[in-house]
Amino acid sequence: MKKGIDTLQSKIAEAWKGGGEHRIEHQHQKGKLTARERIEVLLDQNSFEELGMLVTHRSVDFGMDKEKYYGDGVITGYGTIHSRPVYVFSQDFTVFGGSLSEAHAEKICRIMDLAVANGIPLIGLNDSGGARIQEGVVSLGGYADIFYRNTLASGVIPQISAIMGPCAGGAVYSPAITDFIFMVDHTSYMFVTGPNVVKTVTNETITSEELGGAMTHASYSGVAHLVAENDVECLQSIRRLMTYLPQSRLEKTPKMAYNLQPSEIRPVLNTIIPDNPQQPYDMKEIISGIIDADSFYELHANYAENIVIGFGRIGGQSIGIVANQPAHLAGVLDVNSSKKGARFVRFCDAFNIPLLVLVDVPGFLPGKDQEWNAIITNGAKLLYAFSEATVPRITIITRKAYGGAYDVMNSKHIGADFNYAWPSAEIAVMGSKGASEIIFRKEIAGASDPVAKLAEMESRYADKFANPYLAAERGYVDEIIEPQKTREKLLKSYAVLRNKQIAAPTKKHGNIPL
Ligand code: HXC
Prior knowledge:
Blueprint: H1 2-16, H2 21-29, H3 35-42, E1 49-51, E2 74-81, E3 84-91, H4 102-118, E4 122-128, H5 137-153, E5 159-168, H6 173-177, E6 180-184, E7 189-191, H7 195-202, H8 208-212, H9 214-221, E8 226-228, H10 231-242, H11 283-290, E9 297-299, E10 307-314, E11 317-324, H12 335-350, E12 355-361, H13 368-372, H14 375-388, E13 393-402, H15 403-408, E14 418-421, E15 426-428, H16 432-439, H17 441-446, H18 450-465, H19 469-474, E16 479-480, H20 486-497
Parallel strand pairs: 3-4, 4-5, 5-6, 5-7, 6-8, 11-12, 12-13, 13-14, 13-15, 14-16
Antiparallel strand pairs: 1-2, 2-3, 9-10, 10-11
Helix pairs in contact: 4-5, 12-14, 16-18
Bound molecules: hexanoyl-coenzyme A.
Hexanoyl-coenzyme A binds at residues 23, 96-97, 99, 129-133, 140, 143, 166, 168-170, 173, 194.
């Protein structure tokens, strides 16, 4: 037996060496952790159990039969985060640059299958040069096996991707199908083709950072949801994200213990909206005034900043927040903000996370750029996502709710459960000036002082429509509430929506305007 145990231990020791000391050192020099070190930071202490440690590739071409490493460039297994199980894979860049071979793909597929069958989230730590070039089509097949599983698992279990090194070619499409993408600033890159191919095909000269660095994807493309300064921050951020999520679509969202305070009134909320309706304010101040202290977890913070999305808690209960941001482009809805909001709403709906929607929106952004980039189709994504959501849905109109954007932003008409407005709300087809110029055109043109006439008509229109009372008379708004009482109202409202169940019409799946 001793001999057998010695053999086992020497194989385990070899597996732990990955691609060897000098490659590990190189990884550290780049400011990156190794695949195993990352798992240590991600999971609860000593909770990791590895599967497939001794797997090797089967390739023989180009001398590959003489170069084999246990694990074949990916560590797979399971462990816990805050005592709840997760499956995890972590690509090992020290072994063939973390590239994906047939055996490497099989290891990932195996834990994906286990994660889905058991209703447990999947976390992928990606650090890969893409398809293992020496294996050719076999590695392409391996990628497709993973993409297929990612798609089938979508909406069944949460899938989280961290990009922790260069991810090229096939290495980007699996993360793209998952729910959230984290990137590490200055050490992670995502692109379908790197700068060299770009130069050859389009004659464009561009750096990796500019083409597919973390800030590029966090601000321009919107591919990345969160950027971390380094590996440790990234992994800790994933641990925090997991506290808001259920294990699978069959579970309710986690609820932290919360004792109702003697007073849940938040006086600060009465002071945030400026007297001048044209003046901006920061919607994030309202969010933090409403939700549990320090519970806001913002996603896509640098992309389409005119809409704010993220998780929070109310009375310990996870919620998904979608809010117009008047401090950026007056909170207008445009192509990017509609896409950003829609995908988040669909995630929350798939995983039973109640929605809170805060509205201060002047409308959709007009213009050729928006029309040519399909604001019609993209705006419809947000409309569709809210309309099909069956989770508890509450809306608060803090100020403007104009035009089609009023309808889209989780209005009563498209299935919201409770719609509240603050006294500062303005709910109308359009702003007073634009409306007066159209409907009082003749009176204004015929007036001895057209400017004064416009101002008079504008003020009449505003008195009539720029308030929440007509909507309240119709029942489109359930109640007009004092801002400081909002949190108290929400605690009660979510409590009576907790068991909400509505039967969606039977169909295979809808056809969201993609
Ligand atoms: C096999 C690979 C590899 C790959 C890297 N290596 N990529 N081995 N297949 N795809 C190996 C290198 O030979 C090297 O081995 C080690 O990994 C580290 O690579 P370096 O180049 O030294 O590292 P670095 O300078 O950091 O550059 C990393 C990199 C670069 C940017 C990822 O290696 C690179 O451009 N690789 C190729 C990327 C690519 O074109 N992949 C195929 C995409 S096509 P040694 O022995 O020296 O340590 C694809 C199709 C799928 O993925 C499509 C599905 C939709």
